[in-house]
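ok so dumb question maybe but i'm new to this and my supervisor (M.) told me to 'just get the structure for Xylanolytic transcriptional activator regulatory domain-containing protein' and walked off. so i did the thing. is this what she meant?? sequence i used:
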Amino acid sequence: MALANGENIVDTITSTSILALYLFMNGRRVEGQYHTNAAVALVFSSQLHQMSPQVPIERVTGMTLFWQVFYLDRCWSSVIGRSPGFEEGDNPQKFITTPFPGDNRSNRSGSLVRQLIENPSLFPSNNIESLMIKSAIVFEQSAQFSNATSGSTNPPEWNRYFKLQAAVEHLLPTVPPLGNMSNTDLRIPVIYTLLHTATIYIYHPFVANDRNLQLLSLDAARSILGVIRAIRSSRYQFLDPILTFCWKVTAEVFIREKILAVGSSVPDQEVIVQGLQDELHVVVTALRKLSLIFPIADAILRQIEGQIESSAS
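this is what came out, is it supposed to look like this??
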């Protein structure tokens, strides 16, 4: 009835998106995507994606809700291999113009998502909420670029490659330091992880043929490793389940590097292999802790353990 007469639309969108997240974290991806799409459809019909910053205070709730649904859609659509529900295309009615959290300037013309990738310096990141949204955008766009480029016979979209790379490089220095993880806002490690995972995605299609990009990919994985090491075990229950997939990507980098090191004849080979094994162990241990909280992490853990077993044979 609420959907039919438009009453309690905020409550309906909120409950639908919470249900979608619950389904995703329990490994029920198709159902999660269905409910995410339902939340997105309600957002579009309510025009929460095109709100002015000069709105009554009660509408601020709608702006906050929009970005929560947007974050859910962008992050999870990319990791399950589906197109995001907030696919703007060339339809101005679907352009996202609702200001980023904390941005009180008048609406910009055109899509904020496209403008962020084109020129991230236009959007100062002055709060954690804004950084979460921007990191999710870059994360999803980088995953999309990686999937479209890997295995394609067409030349890479180098313009897009450089813009994504520049977006990551612009955002990373604006993220607050991790600090003391006993009281750090747990969105901060998520932001770092999304951006470093985006870097791995950007370089992934080229690492087999470019040693420099291979090493940059490894650097990004090690940066994620640093974030993992900073998170206390007692705080795992409060983590964002999207980290499961980022840690999977991280583990796969260390598996790749270990395979390459085993097959090489470089000096100190055994030391290098053992070091990579130790780094991989940290990621696997983190996934194992997360699997006690999120069922989806258990499924991902088993995938990684299978890859490790196959690489050892």
